[in-house]
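Hi V.,

You were right to ask for the full record rather than a summary. Here it is.
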Amino acid sequence: MPRNEPTQVTDGWDGGRSPGRRKAVRYAVPVAVAGVAAATIGLVPAFAGSGSPDLPKISAQDLIAKVAKSDVQQLSGTVRVSTDLGLPSLPGAGGGAGGFGGAPDGGEKGGDGASAAPQKKLMELASGAHTLRVAADGPEKQRVSIVDKAAEYSLVHNGNEIWAYDSGSNTAVHSTAPDAGRHGKQHRAPKDLPGGLKDATPQDLAKQALKAAGDTTSVTVDGTAKVAGRDAYQLLIKPKQAASTVGSIRVAVDAANGVPLKFTLTPKSGGAAAIDVGYTNVDFAKPAASTFAFTPPKGAKVVDGDKAQAKTPREHGKDLPSQKDVKGLKKEMGGLNVLGKGWTSIATIKGDGSGLPSGKDQGAGGDAGKFLDSIGEKVHGSFGSGRVFSTRLVNALITDHGTVYVGAVDKQALIDAANAAK
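Predicted structure:
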């Protein structure tokens, strides 16, 4: 069989396929990719396994269609997640194994369920390396466990029940899943399942990256690889817009069933991948029913998530901004606008003129200003002046008038946007 070689995707490559097929092969704007990285995730070379298998040649169009048509709903395996966004270390930011417990005192204050709250795990996946054990059996049963040396966090959906358990604080939160989808029509986990955990597998990341294609993107099939012991094609996505900070996105696609096995986003600046998520082992057989059974361990603190959620608005509703307040805030800030398109889209929020404190400021704001001066680069333009805060993927310009420009673009693109909006 001929060895697969790179295949270029050009404008109008659809080749007469149906509108549904064309829709399935569109690609995501990089701001969405950056959002996944922030919320949402290089890895060791061993991930790809050994050797490049000989596979029948396939076009990029057909490979993307293969991903879109894949309907694998039963699997189990281990996923390795690594993120290296180049975020600055903030004063007082903790981490490590103890992060699972949540409370600074080692978990004693975790009895209210805060340490087991799924949203808390999102921040942990935003940096460093993590191992996840995943399993799924259709839309009714999923399990994701974040495994650490000292603790394990599990999120289990089984029918109408959802359990979140943090072994670090021995706390479990039990909630009831919505009835929607209990008749076999819903092919997704319930909305209660937090996106940052639910979307931590290569399949979900790839789907988010394959939503919108056009003249801003180059798509090729760049050879083959072995991932988790399975033969895979490598789909290579590269921005054509020079100002993008994204170098490339590589998706390893299972040659047999179209399931993405590995997702790698590399910054244009080079070095290790900013986001790298891939299976180290995977089995597409039906998982054992016991995989989705959960009983809180002896002595565990069990919190009723439904009651806690219903109780919170009544007790603290007066402290939360009303819908009217939110609309008023948006109006005062000038609203959120998006400039440009594709990989160089820039989100902007108009400021109120106050800006950020400077290291020259006296009083309480002085220390904050000095810290900002140490991590932000002072820039100037016809818009005035401001600071650019940079990561390996996303950059943000905050002007001295308080207007914010942010995107997966280089510094000059932000300055140009601010100058044009002047």
